[in-house]
Amino acid sequence: RKAGGFKMEDFFLRKCWFTLVFLCFLATIMSVSSVTHYSVPEEMEDGSVVANLAADLGLEVKTLKTRKMRVDVVANKKYLDINKDTGELFIAERIDRELLCPLKTTTHCFLKLDATIENPIRMFNIEVEITDINDNAPHFRRGTMHLDISESSPVGERFSLNNAADPDVGANSVKDYYLSASDHFALEIQTGRDGSKFADLVLQKALDREQQAVHNLILTAVDGGVPTRTGTASIIVRVLDVNDNAPSFDKDKYVVDVMENSPIGSLVMKLNATDLDEGSNSDVVYSYSLYTSERTQEMFQLNPENGEIRVKEMINYEDLKLYELEVIASDKGHNSLSDVTVRVEDVNDNQPEIEITSFSSHIPEDAPPGTVVALMGVTDIDSGVNGQVVCSVPADLPFDLKPSPDGQSYSLVTRNHLDKEITPMYNIAITATDLGSPALSSVKVIQVEVLDVNDNSPLFTQSPYSFYIYENNKAGRSIFSVKATDADGGENSVVSYSLDRKSPGPTAFLNINEANGSIAALKSFDFETVKSFQFQVVASDSGSPSLSSNVTVNVFILDQNDNAPVILYPVSSNGSAEGVEEVPRNVNTGHLVTKVRAYDADIGYNGWLLFSLQEVTDHSLFGLDRYTGQIRTLRSFTETDEAEHKLLILVKDNGNVSLSATATVIVKVVEPKEAFAASDVKSSAKDDEETDVTFYLMITLGSVSVLFLISIIVLIAMQCSKSTEYTSKYLQEANYDGTLCHSIQYRSGDKRIPERSSVNEVTRKCWVFQK
Hints:
GO terms for molecular function: calcium ion binding. Keywords: Calcium, Cell adhesion, Cell membrane, Glycoprotein, Membrane, Repeat, Signal, Transmembrane, Transmembrane helix. Pfam families: Cadherin, Cadherin_2, Cadherin_C_2. The chain has eight helices and 51 strands. The chain has 771 residues and is an alpha+beta fold. It has a four-stranded mixed sheet, with no helix packed on it. A four-stranded mixed sheet has the order 9-16-15-12, with no helix packed on it. Helix content is 16%, strand content 38%.
């Protein structure tokens, strides 16, 4: 290979490149095309393969059965079908083009099909052209034609002959005519407006009745098929004597318009022909010529006497738009011809038709917008704007219609997301309206059911829940219940309940009924141990996947009077509530002898203690404060008073069923010296014990004071930062004067803040009690 020479590799590379570009261009054209075209000749045997439709549409053969592929022929018999095992389109029934397309208004005959598959739904438009074969021979409607020609007819005069008909089209139709040998006549071939061939008999030599009164001729029609087919007819010409004047029409050609669906018997037009002869030679008779087709003669009735043309059968624009009539006006001898063209005007007399070719009656509510619900074809056999159809669905429905490129089919698709809980079923009225005036329409209603999808979580009737229960409940019994509902249907709406064991709370001592949400306590609650708690309940539906929601349950334990008062002082060494107090005889009235101290673990009224004297030696000598438990002298002692007095004090709470305790105080009246001596002995015994206690007490009091000051500063700062509305919303108006500190703490835990003066007062009382 010389330098700079042509490289064979470059040639092949360029050739591959151009081939690739051409194939890409061809694939682009095919992908854009909306209709797949095929062409097959008529009269093929049943089972003959047209093409591999699956391969041409890019479908996998093994999925044709599962995707339920089918072929529907539009407005015709099912001549074609598809083999789902091979994907081949084959002839299901012999096709006769002349039967399928009887009108020869066009040389093309198409069979339209819709191929539909599911999962997902797709529809393909297929157009199969049925090509003509030469399977029909020309034939004359009349096997023998009779012509009466005057012997005075000039050379060159033309006489119409019955043309031959051939159902085939194109080159297979009538191509030429031949006349048997004759000295007087010849043929002249004419071509009609629609391309059909017909022959005129031309007189080329004058006739002489005396020499030959009848001429017998043979007319042969030949088509253009391979091999050719022929048909013949006999022509019998009778030579007549001279009749000088032939009838004459006032026009050589008439054009008239008639509306389709004109009533039978309505007048189309009236012809007028005159004859200058006299007598019987001037009588004009009207008739159709041999050029007028039998179909035209069936549609229009010609009155032979007056030339009126009337409608004989219903005219349909969709069958034929133009009729050509050739009328002969004849007297006793001569004929006159006139052409009449009847143009049919279209009337919007056909409603559009809707045909559902594929339909999914159940659509899940989570189907995305654009999901195909149904495929349908729309036809209107009117023409022009009368045959143009527009389809619509109500605007308030979440559906749209998408037209195909040719406008002859539509896809019904979802426009928005569906919600079964709002609308479980749709009745979709599809309206097809043509563009004629007045417009005609038709309606087809399809019903679409929305399938439920688990898209709603259970919803609790309250959030959060708050329950108040009394302490000392019976273990194992239901104490309260929760309720949740699910807007879904069927299994998706069945709700089950469970406790969130991971959430904080005493869930180990609780049990919940999975079916109805009833919650039972596995143990009895004690207000004095726990006053409130919180836990989480989970509600789950039975859908797949399951959806759930949780709710917070706040439980508040209510106090019951289940604790009797406990005597704190006096208490003897053996634990009994009994004490001895020595009082000098010379004390004044109101002297504090002692104070009975008691405690009740309950709160509120259940823990509010009252003191009373049950037994006393001398009622005039001692008095007991009902609320504080202080015992004081009511008067001074006298010499006659006894030296020892026994007091029995009853301490009871204020519960509905009051509980109580008793304490015994023995008061010994001593002389002042003995009292002071006894006091000194007690003081000396306690000095050593209290030395260390005093030190620790000082440290404790100092710490408490500092914390108290910090708390007061923080409370003042928080109070200043809150609005007046917030303060008024949460502050109590009641001033509760309790005797126990823990009742204040309980109320504070319930976010009930007493007034500042009440806080100070109760704090003071608690401090006195502790002291």
